Amino acid sequence: MNDCKKCRDVFVDALYGDLSPDAKKIFESHLRECAKCRLDFEGMSSTRDTMSARIRPEPAADFWDGYWNRLAKRMEREQVALPTKENWWQSVFQKRLSHTPRWAYQAAASVLLVAVGIFLGRMFFTPSPVSLQTPEISQVAIQPGSQINVTQRAFDYIERSKLIMLAISNFDTKNQDPYALDLPYQQQISRELVQEASVLKQELADSHQRRLQELISDLEVILLQIANLESGLDMSAIELVKDGVKSRGILFKIHLSDTAQLKDNPNAHPGANRVKNKSKRF
Amino acid sequence: MAIEDNEKNIIELVCAGDMYAFESIVERYKKKVYYIAYDIVGNHHDAEDISQEVFIKMYRTLSRFRKDAKMSSWLYQIAVNTSIDVLRKRKSKPLLNALDLEEAETHENPPGSTGGKDDPERRAVASLMQEHIQKALCKITPQERTVFVMRHYNEFKIREIADVLEVSSGTVKSLLFRALKKLRKELATSQGKRRWEVNYE
Questions:
Q1: Which residues of chain A make contact with B162, given a CB cutoff of 8 A?
Q2: Which of A47, A54, A84 sits opposite B184 (nearest CB)?
Q3: Distances in whole angstroms, Cα of residue A8 to Cα of each of A95, A257, B148, B172, B178
């Protein structure tokens, strides 16, 4: 009985010639002794042979010759495209769309509304630095001749933003205590920086500093996302912000601007000063 | 190993937008993908449609393909899943296409051969045999059919089938055993009916 079970376990291997020589000997020896297993195996072998008589129609040669052309036409018709870096957000949304909760759509809609508001504000209203800035910042903005020039302020802005970007990027949503992030504080700083961005960008544009202007724009988008995160700690929303930081290469761009600034003037960079001061303490 | 390295290079080229590289993948795998689809769904038109669908799905998701995985297994997995989806939409039975059956008969007795073309009785028997085999294949579940056609008609090893379907080798053997048992039963029934029909006539 036990031998019969073992025999049936290797029926499939035996039928398709996958048994080792030793196993084959044992199998055939059992078949000689057990009429029931022998009959079953013969029946199965006969089925296998009958099924082998099936004829699969071979498509005509021109079917294979024209296969690629037909496929290429279909891909063109259906506008099949590779997911590229340019449309990274599509793949992010495709992956998340099926299990995204309703609040996420609401958050996205509110971010969009704020962005539209900012855009319309810039389009139709004259920028009013005094109304947009905190007192300290507006004081800086209305003193073009002051010692703190626009480049220096831009680097200071980048340095402050970098701290937030690092806090968000290094935050492990799966394992870390959510309160370690201190999100309300990060949001408050983000809001201040977003307010500051429009004037700074304008001044950078006026002084033809395109790269710094673009970096400030990139930072502004991420900061806006952070500022508009809902008060409850939602890890998937934070993950989205992290994805944004990563895909825009924000930290890399900051690093480049730091390097460029240090090269030009090591003392001018507030971050560099901080590092110097810090190193003195040890 | 060399083939796998080569495939990785090709994938990188496709991801960089090289359509010639993608064409080389299609040329290499088109027949195997088509035949897997044909054996599962049982007709030419669906098989062609599925095989194209497989390459399109592959193209769309190529950038997410794990570099350590085997491309062929991944491609065959898409082929199997797409074919089974088509069967589900069609309430799980492969379509018996009369045109395909006729074509199969022509194949067995090609023009000019003496193998029964002029013998109406032999032709009728061969035709009935093809019909019985196709009907028997319709009676087993899509999973059993998939495993059976991959091993029997497409010469996949048990281990390869297990990789494609992401199951154990034991599961593959068990499905194959069940498929053969059911096919045996179905063929015996249809042959019994045939004998009865012949006697009655």
A1: none
A2: A47
A3: 45, 71, 17, 15, 12
Give contacts of B34 with chain A, Cβ < 8 Å: 59
Instruction: Show the DSSP H helices in B62-168 as ranges.
Output: 71-89, 98-108, 120-139, 142-152, 158-165
CB B56 to CB A75 under 8 A? yes
Backbone angles phi, psi at A220, to 5 degrees: -60, -40
Question: Complex ipTM, two decimals?
Answer: 0.81
Picking from A48, A57, A67, the nearest residue to B30 by CB comes out as A67
Q: What is the DSSP string of A190-208?
A: HHHHHHHHHHHHHHHHHTT
Mutate to test the interface with B, among A9, A20, A58, A71 (most CBs of B within 10 A): A71
Q: What distances in angstroms separate CA A268 from CA A10, A145, A165, A199, A264, one per listed residue?
A: 78, 17, 22, 21, 9
This prediction has a pTM of 0.55
Spatial separation of the C-alpha atoms in residues B100 and B47, rounded to whole Å = 12
Is residue B153 predicted with pLDDT exceeding 90?
A: yes
How far apart (Å, rounded) are the C-alpha atoms in residues B43 and B29?
19
Interface-testing mutation among A8, A12, A42, with chain B (most B C-beta atoms within 10 A): A12
- The beta-carbon neighbor of B59 closest among A13, A16, A82 is A82
Q: Letter for the amino acid at B201?
A: E
Between CA A43 and CA B121 the distance in angstroms is 26
A123: which residues sit within 8 A by CB, 6+ positions away?
Answer: none
Distance of alpha carbon A163 from alpha carbon A157, whole angstroms = 10
> Which of A122-136, B62-76, B106-120, B140-154 has the highest mean predicted lDDT (pLDDT)?
B140-154
Do A54 and B176 count as a contact with CB atoms less than 8 A apart?
Answer: no
For B28, residues 6+ apart whose C-beta sits below 8 A from its C-beta are none
Residue B102 has pLDDT above 50, yes or no: yes
Residues of chain A with Cβ-Cβ distance to B61 below 8 Å are 83
Of A51, A81, A83, the CB nearest to B183: A51
Rounded to an integer, the average pLDDT of B87-109 is 59
